[in-house]
Specification:
Helix content is about 80%, strand content about 0%. With about 210 residues, the protein is mainly alpha-helical.
Length: about 210
Amino acid sequence: MSEASSRTNVMMSKLSLVGDLLMLQLVFLLFSVGIVTLFPAAFALQRVLPYAIGQEHPALLRRFWGEFKWCFRRFWLVGLALYFGGVALAFGLFFWASTNGPIRIFALAVLIPLSGMIVGLYLSALAVLPQAEDDATSRSVFRTANLFLLRRSLPVAGGVVGLATWFLLVGRLPTLFVIGSGLVPALIAYWISRPPRTRPEKSSGSVSI
């Protein structure tokens, strides 16, 4: 195989990956129109994402539909709680940020770390969802996400910062919401779920003096 054909294959593989990711984003937008389906659609996207990134094509749309039904049966009530809790938390942040007085500093000092912890737990839940068993429940996923958050606190903190940066960009360029509203949290969670790289240990014979 020539070098030119090898580069062409690599380019086509990357274009196929981008196409699959954008297709999943569009499907996510379609399924998340209703409030009750928003988080089940996000969870389904997370469970299908590894197949798209690994360039395995076991009918991604059909797999998304199957995962969505699985997630909706188990997590629709949790999704509603996350939605209304997120709205209330965002309202509290905007309210206290627009007020004056010393109580504003105290309120923000409580709400900002609380928001970071909730977002970190949410990213941890996304990170562990692809490995969840078929009989998993919201409680079991919550426990696994808590353990993941404790063990991978630094990557999760980086994910929280990355997601906050994304929201700031969306505030300035709202059109980015259509492109990455589902993909960006899913990709961040996929990144923090990957095991850390370990450097190969040098044997005593390979150490130079």
